[in-house]
Amino acid sequence: MGAEALARWQHPELGLLLPQQFIPLAEQTELIHPLTHWAIEEVARQVRAWNDIGAAVPVAVNVSTRSLQEPMLVDFIVEVMASWKMPPGQLKLEVTESALMVNPPRAIELLGHLRSLGVRIAIDDFGTGYSSLSYVKRLPVHEIKIDKSFVMNLATDKHDLAIVRSTIELGHNLGLEVVAEGVEDQETSDRLAELGCDSIQGYLVSRPLPAAALLEQFLGGAPATPGLVLAAARTAYRGD
Ligand code: MN
Fold first, then answer.
1. Distance 94 CA to ligand 1 centre (A)
2. Among candidates 107, 106, 83, which has minimal Cα distance to 95?
3. What's the 155 CA to ligand 1 centre distance in angstroms?
4. 174-to-28, 29, 138, 195, 218 alpha-carbon distances in Å
5. Pairing verdict, β 230-236 and 2-6
6. Are β-strands 59-62 and 2-6 bridged in parallel, bridged antiparallel, or unpaired?
7. Which of 22, 89, 124, 229 makes the best surface tag, with the fewest CB within 10 Å?
8. Whole-number Cα distances in Å, 52 to 148, 209, 213, 225
9. Which whole number is the average pLDDT over 3-8?
10. pTM > 0.85
11. 33 close to 66: Cβ distance less than 8 angstroms
């Protein structure tokens, strides 16, 4: 039902770098802006290529704390969607609670604007930040993604189970879709289905893959498109 764009940096001397090895550094500098712009444009380009061969996959992009404060972000996204003829509903922006809490009125305005254009908004790593529930109620988001630290031991830890169950209920009562992150085994997936979770993401569905491999794995034999985007797939319990 969808994919999330994840960044990897194949460094000529240091080898493969993971986001936690370069995103914090980019965040401390202005470099986070070109990086975020590159990721959004790369997703739009990939979605266009997939749409052209009949594989309309929605793709999520992570937006960092600094990028959420960038005045030009909305204009940039509008421009990119137009130039790649990307349907706004195929773009999802993921923002963390802590990013939202830096300047909540600004986040509400920016995300509200994007939402009105048809872009989907998700709160990422939900449960790890310090967001107040009064803001969660007011944020113009479509879904919450329960952080993997609560999901991973769900089948054996009754406290994690209680947190996940309550979060699914909270999300649904607020009219939001609920995604569980970090699902690695069938038992956890089954428990989440029983709890009414809308969809899952994690190694059980797919490990991160290059875009071309993702298409091949999920659509079987469709022509590969060149791409730098790495994606983690999601799956739904309910098809409707
Ligand atoms: Mn994410």
1. 6
2. 107
3. 23
4. 34, 36, 10, 16, 32
5. antiparallel
6. parallel
7. 89
8. 34, 21, 17, 11
9. 93
10. yes
11. yes
Distances, alpha carbon 238 to alpha carbons 30, 50, 193, 201, in Å: 41, 23, 9, 14
Question: What is the pLDDT, as a whole number, of residue 236?
Answer: 56
Distance 140 CA to ligand 1 centre (A): 17
Q: How many whole angstroms separate alpha carbon 150 and alpha carbon 180? A: 9
Please state the rounded mean pLDDT for residues 142-168. 96
Q: List C-alpha distances in Å: 210 to 13, 48, 77, 122, 227.
A: 21, 16, 23, 23, 7
CA 43 – CA 227 distance, rounded (Å): 9
User: Which residue matches tokens 């969660």?
Assistant: 136
Of the listed ranges 111-120, 125-134, 168-177, 230-239, the least confidently predicted one is: 230-239
Instruction: Give the Å distance between the CA of 172 and the centre of ligand 1.
Output: 20
Q: What number of H helices and E strands is found in the chain? A: 11, 11
Hunting for tokens 């791409």 — which residue is that?
227
Task: Give the model confidence (pLDDT) of 101-112 as tens digits.
Answer: 888 888 999 999
Span 45-77, pLDDT tens digits:
999 999 998 888 899 999 988 888 888 999 999
Q: Please name the helix (run of DSSP H) or strand (run of DSSP E) that holds residue 11, with its range, or none.
A: strand 9-11
Q: 54, 78, 67, 58: which is closest to 26 by C-alpha?
A: 67
